[in-house]
């Protein structure tokens, strides 16, 4: 089931971009690959990496494996270059998310990227302990990591709850992930058999972002089953 969830599933800006983070999120919510591709070519630095990351996820949902791999590699290269110039918690967290998706798509990359992911998240936490996107990526990482290797559903819930609390803090620039944190916490609850609580979290995600397609899909999926 977790593989299916992936299929159905964060800075520096040197010049004025065609799109900001909200624009990229809006395109991802509507699965507008053409718009995401345009943003990825006409933005720079963190925003460009984020556009490639969302393009990779959207392409994966659509079954376009080459586009998924190419976009992930572009996001990775952009973020590694950014971090070579200056370390920021948001760039570290987003690169950790990219590495995690690389592993999920190809388990053979676990040996290469697993330790890098853990190191990035530790460094990001040290830089900005109150960054909600760092906690969100920790939640995603824990969801896919067996408890014997330091992950598990309880940790996924805990990190997602931490992220949700931190999203109440003021945010001016990089602000994505609030609805996503509720969605991942709901997924962890669903895996543990608490569907009612999971659906409450998915509804909370929609309350935050009425266009958040993933939470809408998950709720509609349960409505069909009932």
UniProtKB/TrEMBL annotation:
Sequence ranges of the TPR repeats: 179-212
Organism: Shewanella litoralis
Name of the featured protein: Tetratricopeptide repeat protein
Superkingdom in the source lineage: Bacteria
InterPro entries: OspD, TPR-like_helical_dom_sf, TPR_rpt
Signal peptide bounds: 1-19
Keyword Signal: yes
PROSITE patterns to which the protein is assigned, alphabetical: TPR
Keywords recorded for this protein, A-Z: Signal, TPR repeat
